[in-house]
Every structure is written in structure tokens, then in C-alpha cells.
Amino acid sequence: MLTNRHSLRPSPSLFRMLAGALLLLPLSCQSVSHTPSPPPSKARFEGVMLWKGHPVSRAALFLSDKSRPGTEIEFLTRTDGRFSYDLSPGAYHLRSAPTTMCPIEGEVRLKAGENSYMIKVHSLSFLSCQKGTIQRLSPH
Fold first, then answer.
1. Which CATH architecture has domain 43-136?
2. I want to staple 95 with a disulfide (CB 3.0 to 4.6 A). Which of 61, 91, 105, 133 is the partner?
């Protein structure tokens, strides 16, 4: 049994240190969540896949390097519809067929650095399949 209750109280300086650490926590989290730039000889292919303004999650994207026939890279969009992959600069053939969406395909040209794209897909219908778009967003 403890008889001295005053010894269990934290000191005011401990509270100040904890408060300061909590104030700095958001800053440290922001720096961790930042995606570093790709190496100089690489091209980052990044962007978002949307359907009527909503993200398309877990959609498979297939990229074929036009300079090396027979090579294909597959990756998925994240739950927020975004994707990011580091590749060699060059021309690639992109295709995707998200579930219940019209397939999309086209060419993307990647330069060294960041290359941002927006991919818009449309719903699959019994009568037709509207062609989607692959739009370059970065200033390259």
C-alpha cells in the first residue's frame, strides 16, 4: 500500500516535454508519408484511375515495354485508386480491364522523373462499351 500520494504526480516539466513531442508528431508523420523522387535514370509512372469521379480500387494495370516485346509488368491500383511504379524511361503500352468496367488501352510515354496520368474508365453495358481516356497530367 502506498502512503505518499504526492510522489505519484508527474512533474510539470514532464507534461511540457510530452506536449512538445505530441505537437511535433504530425510533422514527422508528414515527412514519412512523402514518396521520394525516383532515381535520375528512372521514370515514375503515377496517377489515379477514376470512374465517374470515384476511385477504382484494386484494378490491375498491365504495362508492356515497346522497346522489349514480350515483357509485361502488372500492378494494382490502391484502395484510393492511385498507382505508382518506377520504370525505365520510354514508350509503354498500357491496358486494364477493371471488373464491371470497359477495358482501356493506350500508349504512355515516360520521361525521367515523375510522370502523372489520370485514367478514366466507363461502366460496362450490354449494348456498348464507351472508350476510356488516358490523360497526361505532368508538365513533361
1. Sandwich (2.60)
2. 105
